[in-house]
Design a protein that fits this description.
Helix content is about 40%, strand content about 15%. The chain is built from 6 helices and 8 strands; from the N terminus they run αααββααβββββαβ. The longest helix is centred in the first third of the chain and has 13 residues. The structure holds zinc ion (2 copies).
């Protein structure tokens, strides 16, 4: 399994705290590769290094993970997101309504119910995905 930010944050969250060798084992990285990756996400404020060389998620790291879980990450290698968003349909996290991509449209931002442009559930108005994710899936803009 290749590592991406989404799966790395998920691993750290599930273990609570990790050493760089946990990352090495899980994603088959070299020792220096795992360390470099942890430094990279530490600089982005997503993890913090503890005094015993372990890392844990920061509040921002947790927020980012929640975002990825809900809307998917943009990594092409992310197995998790490929599974969740694979095929031609998406399930709404809120009402479980299944929408086919061909029936969905990207909507412009509206007043209260649509604070940002993107794709919304036709059933409950829950935000389903960003414009970027939608365009990747060839969803058209509303005409
Ligand atoms: Zn992902
Ligand atoms: Zn819904």
């Amino acid at each position: 399994m290749k590592n991406c930010k989404h799966l790395t944050l998920k691993l750290i969250n599930s273990m609570g705290k990790i050493y760089s060798f946990n990352l090495m084992q899980r994603f088959n990285l070299s020792d220096s590769g795992a360390r470099t990756y942890l430094l990279y996400i530490e600089r982005q404020g997503l993890v913090e290094r503890l005094c015993n060389a372990q890392y844990r998620l920061t509040r921002e790291g947790l927020n980012r993970l929640e975002w990825f879980e809900k809307y998917g990450c943009t990594s092409n290698d992310c197995r998790e997101c490929k599974d969740k968003f694979k095929g031609e349909a998406i399930t709404c996290d809120y009402c479980n309504n299944l929408s086919m991509f061909e029936d969905l449209r990207i909507e412009k931002e509206g007043l209260l119910i649509r604070p940002k442009p993107g794709v919304y559930c036709s059933h409950c108005e829950n935000y389903l995905m960003s414009v970027k994710m939608a365009e990747k899936r060839k969803i058209k803009w509303i005409s």
